[in-house]
Design a protein that fits this description.
The protein folds into 3 domains: about 40 residues, no CATH class; about 140 residues, Spermadhesin, CUB domain (Jelly Rolls, Sandwich), CATH 2.60.120; about 130 residues, Spermadhesin, CUB domain (Jelly Rolls), CATH 2.60.120. It is about 15% helix and about 35% strand. It has 4 helices and 22 strands. α1 packs antiparallel against α2. The longest helix is centred in the first third of the chain and has 16 residues. It is globular, with a radius of gyration of 27 Å. About 35% of the residues are buried. Bound molecules: 2-acetamido-2-deoxy-beta-D-glucopyranose (3 copies).
């Protein structure tokens, strides 16, 4: 601004005598202002701006340049260092560094998370953690106002689970809690086993120093545990936020989703949560089909048979609103009475699949692995 002002007063001084001068100088100013940001102009812009030292930029998400191109936050290099992050690549046209946050301390005392996009890893990761009987607690600080949700992406999560799908005691337990307590359904269930690639949202509520905690309790059983979890904070106005009370949230016209620990081949006990799907423009219903991948069994919730919908309620089941039924259970996903797998389509506007499993599990009950596809409005 100052530079341009200077230019203009200089120009006015000169314009009295020559119009050509004005024309040429304006072109010059124009080219400074509209230069595309590339390698050569970067350096020039830096020199220009450094005279006044007034560079500001938002702490936007950025992509780091190291292995895996993890997500980082754009900040000045001194800010990144003071927050114990590591700089990995540049952002903000070279004025900032892409700052990466990883915590991987030994478990014991509570570990504070106070940066968006923090990667939470077991001590020694990628080498598994062999220490049993220890709880790792991560406290998510309320890093900003208007916070609504935190999303945990299980990039890698491999922990111990019992043969019948129970978490805790000898096995491990991954549990989230938060100050938000208006609905039991708003909390994700306790999970364990093989959860790589799965995710979980939880509500943070809007007040209190802590926005929630994640505890990874390593049971007394010997074994190896590995985790690498990305934590993303969402403010209430973020469009990527899930609807309230949705533990899993899927966007896009089609995809697949699994019960927790389906990769481990065992439905977890005591689950009560919702999978939600963002209704895409022009789509009105959701169709669900068993995955073509047959191992582990893509639909086995309570017994290896087709079961009448009317008997599902007291059994482990999924809730899915269709014109003829509201639940599905047993060993086949299909319409009521189907003896083999068949596509199930929800009623108009229903984009949710609930999950309910019993507190007592049965070994060999795999849970589900379903493909979803949104159906265009008629
Ligand atoms: C920078 O951009 C200018 C014009 O936009 C172009 O002529 C030049 O080749 C670019 N330089 C590099 C290194 O990309
Ligand atoms: C220019 O930028 C590209 C990526 O944007 C990078 O790969 C390349 O090394 C840069 N070249 C110079 C001369 O800085
Ligand atoms: C956290 O990062 C994500 C992108 O990874 C971004 O969408 C979100 O707005 C950020 N949250 C906050 C609170 O800045």
């Amino acid at each position: 601004m100052l530079l341009h002002g200077l230019y203009f007063s200089l120009l006015f001084f000169l314009t009295a005598s020559t119009h050509l001068w004005l024309f040429c100088s304006l072109v010059l100013i124009g080219s400074v202002a509209s230069d595309n940001v590339n390698n050569s102009t970067n350096a020039r812009q830096k020199r220009l701006f450094s005279i006044f030292n007034v560079v500001t930029f938002k702490n936007d998400p950025c992509t780091t340049t190291g292995t895996g191109n993890l997500g980082g936050t754009c900040m000045t290099s001194s800010e990144c260092a003071s927050k114990s992050g590591s700089a990995s690549g540049n952002c903000a046209a070279g004025f900032g560094v892409c700052c990466l946050f990883i915590v991987s301390e030994e478990c014991g005392s509570t570990i504070t998370i106070n940066q968006n996009c923090t990667y939470i890893r077991n001590n020694g990761n990628p080498t598994p953690d062999m220490t049993a009987g220890q709880t790792c607690t991560f406290d998510f600080k309320r890093i900003c106002d208007n916070l609504c949700q935190i999303r945990l992406d299980f990039r890698t999560l491999s922990t111990l689970v019992s043969a019948t799908g129970t978490c805790g005691t000898a096995e491990d337990a991954v549990t989230v809690s938060s100050p938000f307590s208006s609905s039991a359904n708003a909390f994700p269930p306790t999970v364990c086993g093989s959860l790589t690639g799965q995710h979980m949202y939880f509500e943070t509520g809007t007040s209190g120093d802590s926005a929630g905690t994640l505890s990874i309790a390593k049971g007394t059983g010997a074994g190896s545990r590995t985790f690498d979890i990305k934590a993303t904070y969402y403010t209430c106005d973020n469009l990527a936020k899930a609807p309230p009370g949705c533990t899993q949230y899927f966007t896009g016209q089609s995809g697949s989703f699994q019960s927790y620990n389906h990769a481990g081949g065992q439905l977890l006990t005591d689950q009560l949560y919702k999978n939600c799907f963002r209704q895409e423009l022009g789509f009105c219903r959701l169709s669900l089909t068993e995955s073509a991948t047959q191992t582990p069994d893509p639909f086995l919730l309570s017994a290896p048979d087709a079961i009448a919908e009317s008997t599902c309620d007291p059994l482990s089941h999924i809730t899915v609103m269709t014109p003829t039924a509201a639940m599905a259970c047993g060993g086949v996903l299909g319409k009521d009475g189907d003896t083999g797998p068949a596509t199930v389509t929800t009623t108009s506007g229903s984009f949710e699949v609930g999950v309910r499993s019993l507190t007592a599990g049965t070994a060999g009950i795999t849970g589900f692995n379903l493909d979803f596809e949104q159906v265009a409005c008629a």
